[in-house]
Amino acid sequence: MSEDIVQRVIANPKYKEMTRMRSTYGWVFSAIILVAYYVGFIGIIAFDKQLFAQSISGGAMTWGIPVGFGLMILIIALTGVYIWIANSKFDAMERSLLNDVGATHE
Predict the structure, then answer these.
(1) I want to staple 97 with a disulfide (CB 3.0 to 4.6 A). Which of 14, 69, 70, 90 is the partner?
(2) Where are the domains of the chain?
(3) Which parts of the chain span the membrane according to its record (predicted)?
């Protein structure tokens, strides 16, 4: 891209809105993961180890296993949601922005 197009993109309000939205989604999803992992998982391990060590139904499986899997599922789900948002909203915003400044998507 030429320097002129780059400057027009940076000056465009759609670019500012898109970067603000991407940043907001990134911080919100990061906060959800950090709270779930550090407060929910590591915090419980630090202050109440026996909670995750308790058997679910008197068998060998403890609460730590499904909670750990649940945390992994949460991470995968949030990644999928972010990808969906990026592919639907952000890509459309990018195309609109490039059309506004007279650039093509390369």
Answers:
(1) 14
(2) 3-101
(3) 24-47, 67-85
d(CA 25, CA 58): 41
For every residue of 42-67, DSSP letters joined together read IHHHHH-HHHHHSBSSSSS-BTHHHH
**What's the rounded Cα separation, in Å, for the pair 65 and 39?**
17
Q: How many helices (H) and strands (E) does the chain have?
A: 6, 0
Q: How far is Cα 21 from Cα 26, in angstroms, rounded to an integer? A: 8
CB count, 10 Å around CB of 98?
19
Rounded Cα–Cα distance for residues 64 and 48 (Å): 12
Neighbour count for residue 61 (Cβ, 10 Å): 11
Q: Say which amino acid occupies 3.
A: E
What pLDDT, in 10s, does the model give residues 14-44?
A: 999 999 999 999 999 999 999 999 988 899 9
Check: pTM over 0.70? Answer yes or no: yes
Residue 1 token pair:
């891209």
